[in-house]
Write a structure and sequence with these properties.
By secondary structure, this protein is α/β, with parallel strands linked by helices. The protein has 29 helices and 21 strands. Strand 14, helix 23 and strand 15 form a beta-alpha-beta unit.
Length: 739
């Protein structure tokens, strides 16, 4: 215990030093396991006791003797998660005898005599730090992030030292790999060489090459700016992926405090493309230079992996636990929910964001209802304390700066959201990028047969609607009218199925084969499709603009592409918020006659109107900030709000093997990770489990079968259609879109 306390204190102190909290982290490390010095815990080590709380004693000492609320909270939560800084919760820590008599988790304290515990710890360590005057802090989102960052330093240190101790002498132990350094100068050289190649690529139209070169130059110049929050507003197809990487690497070269780059993307389809680009660029810098972290990490293409691949995947999984890599590519869900989490495993990586450059692509996908609480947190992250640069990139930049007064409310004086725009001549840049003509066919609703009839004039076309059932209806109508090259893309298809279809679609487009795709918004925002004609059902303005980005994307057509916005015969939307934003688009159309999608001011007007009618704050989350309730905040902060269950579908032989494994053995966390690529979301009504879903059980332990409420198998293979996906007769195609 002496060695563990000393080593955790040292590691935590080192990790927190970057953001000025080394002393607090050291104290937390010394006290976090002080309860293990109790006699009852020693009996537990002998197998004679169980159900013990060894963390509350250390939290009590931190609170009563050091007046260090943050330290108390992180010690208290290092096993059970961050709890609450509310007065009632603190009273429990102030009275250990009462807590022992009535523990919220029905545990017993290993020892309530903290003086005895301190004496035993001091006997091992020699001394404890002297108490100091507490620093007065306001209740704020900033303070919650500060606590999570300190918590991250402690739990990562605790995990690492425990891992070291537990693995000593184990023959099958996979050592934690030592990742390479950022090597920003060499990485920048490799990127610059690639940009030069693209500038000379005769397969790219000269206008597009010039546009991308100018954007990359603007990003290079902005890298020297002293601001810590930026926006990059540039049209689709202008090379934002490499331009913002140039911004980050240039900044890292000139600022030795920068330790890593984090790229944040909303959807796995975009993430796959970005990972391929980055790995190709930086192959010489080592296998672990790029760390990919999301729900499907390490699960693709490894079913028949050899020992070397399996070893590599284990190493990547270890690095993903605490994001110890130079460049991390992750999802919005992974990053933002971790920034607002309370669980040790979710928070463990956060301290590595200090000294990072965080690049958010397609930032318009951030739900409006979470805008203010999210920006409060990011404003604190993009501060001198953490020396973290945050960049928001998109063609349809949300006007988040209009929310600054609300963001600043209750926060430290230094917290605000007034980012610097990298592109100074946005109007001119968007004008140069114009390659699509937009028709607003919104005077009257169109029937599905009328819409499909229009698509017969286009051998290659993409039609995007707002609901899965609408995409199904259109696909069937296209079959009825005899169209060639029909595809359907929605979340009725499992992720692996969608990836395979996207690859086929790209091949058809390149080969000039007939290709008509009927889809939901799962194909928007960064998916690299390029159609000469796109049809889009009325939607929020940013969604229409993203659909437009799938049209003449690479400016390779002999004439401008065409986008047609229409009102479908069934004007329904996936959520109330989505409907509200679509109605605003319609109102702006009525007011202005048409909307110029090549003018950034159009989107600013849209967002200004949206923020005046939509909820940009979350009342529950605001109340949890006031009460500093970490557990409830984490529970309610969800980028995707859904009551859908997971249904595993028989897409291929690998999926069928995993389904049979679940029937034979039950399911586990590892099984859930392996099967993610073969799941679809499905909404249940209140009548219970329908017959087409097969319930699943946790992997058998002690002969017991425990049913899992949100995981099922598709009970009938015929219900998974090769074209339409999961389409059971009872509601399979009736749920709203879940991205």
């Amino acid at each position: 215990m002496q060695e563990h306390a000393s080593e955790v204190a040292r590691l935590a102190s080192t990790k927190a030093a970057y953001f000025g909290e080394s002393e607090k982290a050291r104290l937390a490390g010394l006290l976090h396991d002080i309860g293990k010095y109790g006699d009852l815990f020693q009996r537990r080590l002998e197998g004679k006791e169980s159900g013990l709380d060894h963390w509350s004693a250390g939290a009590h000492i931190a609170l009563t003797e050091y007046r260090a609320l943050e330290v108390a909270l992180v010690i208290q939560g290092h096993h059970i998660g961050l709890q609450s800084g509310a007065v009632q919760s603190l009273r429990e820590l102030l009275d250990l005898v009462a807590l022992n008599q009535k523990h919220p988790l029905d545990l017993r304290l290993s020892e309530t005599n903290t003086e005895l515990l301190k004496q035993r710890l001091i006997a091992d360590l020699g001394s404890l730090p002297p108490s100091s005057q507490p620093v007065s802090k306001k209740v704020s989102a900033a303070e919650m992030l500060d606590t999570r960052m300190l918590f991250s330093a402690l739990v990562d240190a605790d995990f690492l030292d425990t891992e070291r101790t537990m693995n000593q002498g184990r023959p099958q132990f996979v050592p934690r790999p030592r990742p390479p350094e950022l090597q920003a100068a060499r990485a920048l050289e490799l990127l610059e060489a690639r940009l030069e190649e693209l500038s000379a690529d005769q397969n790219i139209p000269p206008k597009t090459r010039k546009l991308r070169r100018d954007l990359a130059d603007a990003c290079a110049q902005a890298a020297h700016h002293s601001a810590l929050a930026f926006t990059l507003t540039a049209p689709t197809g202008s090379g934002k992926t490499l331009a913002m990487l140039r911004f980050a690497l240039r900044r890292a070269v000139h600022d030795p405090r920068v330790r890593r780059i984090v790229v944040v993307l909303p959807f796995l389809t975009i993430l796959d493309q970005t990972v391929d680009i980055y790995r190709g660029l930086f192959a010489e810098l080592g296998e672990h230079y790029i760390l990919e972290h999301h729900s499907l990490t390490g699960l693709r293409g490894t079913e028949k992996a050899d020992d070397a691949v399996a070893q590599s995947e284990k190493e990547k999984r270890l690095l993903s636990e605490n994001w110890d890599a130079p460049i991390i590519i992750t999802t919005s869900v992974q990053l933002l929910e971790s920034l607002h989490a309370g669980r040790p495993s979710a928070c463990r990586k956060l301290h590595h964001l200090a000294g990072s450059i965080v690049l958010f692509d397609e930032v318009q996908t951030l739900p409006t209802r979470l805008a203010v609480p999210t920006l409060k947190t990011l404003a604190r992250l993009a501060s001198e304390k953490y020396h973290c640069t945050v960049l928001f990139s998109t063609a349809t930049q949300p006007a988040f700066d209009l929310l600054n007064d609300v963001i600043r409310k209750g926060e430290p004086e230094t917290s605000s959201w007034q980012p610097s725009e990298i592109v100074t001549g946005q109007q001119e840049l968007f004008g140069r990028a114009k390659r699509v003509n937009t028709t607003w066919n919104t005077q009257a609703a169109q029937t599905w047969p009328e819409l499909v009839a229009q698509l017969t004039r286009h051998p290659q076309a993409l039609c995007i609607v707002n609901l899965k059932r609408q995409a199904h209806t259109l696909t069937k109508e296209a079959q009825k009218q005899g169209l060639e090259g029909i595809y359907h893309l929605s979340t009725a298809l499992c992720p692996q199925h969608r990836r395979d279809l996207l690859a086929q679609i790209v091949e058809d487009l390149k080969a000039n084969r007939p290709c008509r795709v009927f889809a939901t918004q799962c194909v928007e925002a960064g998916v690299d499709l390029d159609f000469p004609a796109v049809y889009r059902a009325l939607a929020p303005l940013d969604a229409i603009a993203q659909a437009r980005g799938r049209c003449n994307r690479h400016d390779a057509q002999t004439k401008p592409g065409s986008l047609t916005v229409f009102i479908p015969e069934e004007e329904k939307y996936p959520t109330k918020a989505y409907e509200q934003a679509a109605s605003l688009t319609k109102s702006l159309l009525v007011e202005h006659g048409s909307l110029d999608l090549d003018d950034p001011e159009t989107y600013r007007r849209f967002y200004s109107g949206l923020y005046s009618i939509a909820n940009t704050t979350h009342p529950e989350l605001e109340s949890f900030i006031t009460s500093q309730n970490y557990q409830e905040f984490a529970r309610r902060y969800r980028l995707i709000e859904t009551n859908a269950v997971n249904v595993v579908v028989p897409y291929n032989d690998d999926a069928r093997t995993l389904m049979q494994e679940a029937r034979d053995l039950g399911i586990s966390g590892n099984w859930m990770r392996r099967v993610r690529g073969y799941t679809v979301p499905h909404f249940l009504d209140k009548t219970g489990t329908p017959p087409y879903l097969e319930p699943l059980f946790l992997r058998y332990q002690w002969g017991q079968r425990t049913e899992v409420p949100d995981w099922f198998l598709c009970a009938d293979e015929s219900l998974y259609h090769r074209l339409l996906g999961f389409t059971p007769e009872e509601g399979g195609a009736q749920g709203a879109l879940v991205l």
